[in-house]
Amino acid sequence: MASFGMQSPRRKKVVYSDRYIPSRSGVDLQAAFSLSQTDDLSACPSNNNEAMDLDQRKEQEANRTFSTVLKNELFGDNINLAGTSNKPTDQITPPRSSSDNGSTSASERTPRQATNFFSYQSPNRSRPTSTSIENDIYSLSPVRVDSQRLLLSPTKKPRSIAKVPYRVLDAPELVDDFYLNLLDWGSQDVLGVGLGSSVYLWNASSGSVDKLCDLGDSDKITSLSWIGTGTHLAVGTNTGLVQIWDAQTSKCTRTMTGHTQRASSLAWNEHILTSGSKDKTILHRDVRQPEHYMKKLTHHKQEVCGLKWNVEENKLASGGNDNKLYVWDGLNDTPLHRFEHNAAIKAISWSPHQRGILASGGGTTDRRIKIWNTLNGNKLSDIDTGSQVCNLCWSINSVELVSTHGYSRNQVMIWKYPQMSQVASLTGHTYRVLYLSLSPDGQTIVTGSGDETLRFWNVFDKNKNESGPQSVLLDAFTQLR
């Protein structure tokens, strides 16, 4: 009989399973993951670290280094040897359990949560293919196959630049004057040099030297500039005259006036010849017209020592001893931009690779190279070279820039653009390197100095695009009067 005072116990049904699923309720997963990293030395108490001998510390340091590299290979987090990522990645905190209730304070979180390598991250590379996975599985190397391929791949050798010139020519009476421009290499591979009152032509193909003209004791050569076709040479003189000489016949085809002092800079834009003078003016001359000049610009307050036309964009840059750099749109009277240095601006060069990019250099008290975007007027780069900047010239074969310098290093420097990192520094001149010109093929530069020498340097590689477009300039001399 059943008793009214007590009930018979009911058996519980037990279900057996081959899987063990632990209960994670009330557990902070983030803290648990952080505490699981016991291979780091920082997890050891400070007193234990002090008690360890040197051998043990070296062993643990080696283990930590290996562990860090292994994590890098397994998880691709780019972790360096210090255990931190090379670049920050967006980390998503794992969701808390329902028992946390959002009540975990900042003081309760371990400091290693910021660099916890278990934290979820966005994938930074594509998923490996089955072939790469199979290679990684059977590889005996501790690094991945792609890492092995990267480590074993041949490194690109840096370009070799000769530190000495391959040719040195004597240039007696080459004037040591910062404001003059006495060197220009024409498109016909003929180099023009102004020495005293004479102009000499050196043919790079044959090596012959011919005298183009001699002004006598009454005048001196102050500037030179070849027309784009390389057939005629414009010559500026100390008395302010501008002459045009036919290089084939060695005859002066025209003499133009307009300046009251020396014509220290010249620049061609097809049939337009622009001259800058110590009288602070810039004159535009149309060699097809009988007038000696068609327009005069008077914005500079001191000698105009730098002139460069950008023929493709029809822009003119002018630099002067008043520390001003003006950019002009064609033959307009009003400049587009006015830039400044802290010294005279003779070094000017337009980039042949990017539209509207202009480089300028300052004199002794400035010593800086500045890169300008003339499309919007912004300054892109500003670097201190450590010495007076005398000339600038862009390479036509690579995105590099050559600068020549005076006080106090007298060196030739090559820069990588846009990083403006120094590629090479060439020395040899004992005076200021005041003159610079680039060969038509873009491989060689020639420098002139007050030490009365011309030095030829192989600094650039051959143009890979030999069949590239060539500029076509008008030969305006058929219309000279």
TrEMBL record:
<feature type="region of interest" description="Disordered">
    <location>
        <begin position="37"/>
        <end position="60"/>
    </location>
</feature>
<dbReference type="Pfam" id="PF24807">
    <property type="entry name" value="WD40_CDC20-Fz"/>
</dbReference>
<keyword id="KW-0677">Repeat</keyword>
<dbReference type="GO" id="GO:1990757">
    <property type="term" value="F:ubiquitin ligase activator activity"/>
</dbReference>
<dbReference type="InterPro" id="IPR033010">
    <property type="entry name" value="Cdc20/Fizzy"/>
</dbReference>
<keyword id="KW-0853">WD repeat</keyword>
<dbReference type="InterPro" id="IPR001680">
    <property type="entry name" value="WD40_rpt"/>
</dbReference>
<dbReference type="InterPro" id="IPR036322">
    <property type="entry name" value="WD40_repeat_dom_sf"/>
</dbReference>
<protein>
    <submittedName>
        <fullName>WD40 repeat-like protein</fullName>
    </submittedName>
</protein>
<dbReference type="InterPro" id="IPR056150">
    <property type="entry name" value="WD40_CDC20-Fz"/>
</dbReference>
<comment type="similarity">
    <text>Belongs to the WD repeat CDC20/Fizzy family.</text>
</comment>
<feature type="repeat" description="WD">
    <location>
        <begin position="214"/>
        <end position="255"/>
    </location>
</feature>
<dbReference type="InterPro" id="IPR019775">
    <property type="entry name" value="WD40_repeat_CS"/>
</dbReference>
<dbReference type="GO" id="GO:0031145">
    <property type="term" value="P:anaphase-promoting complex-dependent catabolic process"/>
</dbReference>
<dbReference type="GO" id="GO:0005680">
    <property type="term" value="C:anaphase-promoting complex"/>
</dbReference>
<dbReference type="GO" id="GO:0010997">
    <property type="term" value="F:anaphase-promoting complex binding"/>
</dbReference>
<dbReference type="InterPro" id="IPR015943">
    <property type="entry name" value="WD40/YVTN_repeat-like_dom_sf"/>
</dbReference>
<feature type="repeat" description="WD">
    <location>
        <begin position="426"/>
        <end position="467"/>
    </location>
</feature>
<feature type="compositionally biased region" description="Polar residues">
    <location>
        <begin position="81"/>
        <end position="133"/>
    </location>
</feature>
<feature type="compositionally biased region" description="Polar residues">
    <location>
        <begin position="37"/>
        <end position="50"/>
    </location>
</feature>
<dbReference type="GO" id="GO:1905786">
    <property type="term" value="P:positive regulation of anaphase-promoting complex-dependent catabolic process"/>
</dbReference>
<feature type="repeat" description="WD">
    <location>
        <begin position="297"/>
        <end position="329"/>
    </location>
</feature>
<keyword id="KW-0131">Cell cycle</keyword>
<feature type="domain" description="CDC20/Fizzy WD40">
    <location>
        <begin position="169"/>
        <end position="457"/>
    </location>
</feature>
<feature type="region of interest" description="Disordered">
    <location>
        <begin position="80"/>
        <end position="133"/>
    </location>
</feature>
